[in-house]
Amino acid sequence: MDGPPPPFVASAHRVKLATQAWEVAGAAALRRQVFCVEQGLFDGDDRDAIDAQAIPIVALAELCGMPDAVVGTVRIHQPEPGLWIGSRLAVAEEHRRVGSLGASLIRLAVSTATARGCHCFQAHVQSRNALLFRRLRWTTLEEVELHGRPHHRMQADLSHYPPWPDGAQGFLTLTRRAA
Ligand SMILES: CC(C)(COP(=O)(O)OP(=O)(O)OC[C@H]1O[C@@H](n2cnc3c(N)ncnc32)[C@H](O)[C@@H]1OP(=O)(O)O)[C@@H](O)C(=O)NCCC(=O)NCCS
Hints:
Layout: E1 12-17, H1 21-38, E2 55-63, E3 66-80, E4 83-91, H2 101-115, E5 120-126, H3 130-135, E6 138-146, E7 149-156, E8 171-174
Parallel strand pairs: 4-5
Antiparallel strand pairs: 1-2, 1-8, 2-3, 3-4, 5-7, 6-7
């Protein structure tokens, strides 16, 4: 076989609320890597005022059954009673399209909100990812420009997202392609 072997990809990931300091720090580092370095949307740091009230969610690669690294993240917040917003969805490049991490993060984000009384869940989705969300039962409300890039303001069909009250435990996802 030519070329270097593919990077190691854990066979299982846990998607959960970020409850440990290293999980919160790992989520911040992944966001900087994806939104500042890879996409160039922000200069140096992508943190904003929403982080003070948002609940961070992480996907952790597991090694020998132990959580090892933050490889995915999203955050949710409630700007007004019943209305929840998801933002800063990111999966580490080498973990994309291997373990449904993006879809699993979206699932826990919305299901955590529904467990907390959400009656409307929305997000500004980069247009190139709108199809991913449509497949997860989201619909486009309008198309807008944000950070100089085209976005869809989308809303989740909550009947597809039953409440998940135990976000601190989260759930395990299995990888399609493992090392
Ligand atoms: C968008 C992102 C989070 C998706 O994460 P991911 O872990 O690759 O997504 P998943 O593996 O859960 O994808 C679920 C399904 O949607 C598909 N999919 C993934 N990204 C897609 C896209 N942009 N458009 C259409 N389908 C997509 C996957 O192939 C998979 O399909 P399958 O189950 O038939 O194989 C990831 O690509 C990412 O971090 N991108 C950079 C950051 C970014 O753009 N964030 C803003 C999101 S609005």
